[in-house]
């Protein structure tokens, strides 16, 4: 079944998390964590993965009123955290739109314009490879590459 927040059945589990279904409401774990105004109210066994069912339904209705600035489809449950920014998007669209999602206690999300930037001024040297996948990272800083803030020599792909 498709997530009622991002409207995807085939979304990457690493990005959206497992899909949960309760009483006809179906949503990815991370889509619920990032959705505007939605917060976990109970323990993980209550409601739908700890979110009250009525709150998830309300978030779905609110998201249906917004269009994703990346794909243009309705159901954008996430709005940029920057005050005054109205850009909304689906969690699976975040990477394509060069948004930043912070999978930490606050679960914040930023559009391409307001996303945090690495403070490190380093640039990859020619023929630098990703320390994870060993593919080249290119020779320019970009949204798609990151550097270790401590040593400034270890580069990796954001994905």
UniProtKB/TrEMBL annotation:
One of its GO terms (molecular function) is ligase activity. Pathway: Protein modification; protein ubiquitination. One of its GO terms (cellular component) is nucleus. Its main location: nucleus. It comes from the Eukaryota. It is found in: Nucleus. Residues 1-115 form the PHD-type domain. Keywords: Ligase, Metal-binding, Transferase, Ubl conjugation pathway, Zinc, Zinc-finger. PANTHER family: PHD FINGER PROTEIN (PTHR12420), PHD FINGER PROTEIN 7 (PTHR12420:SF47). This is G2E3 ligase. It comes from Anseranas semipalmata. The gene is G2e3_0.
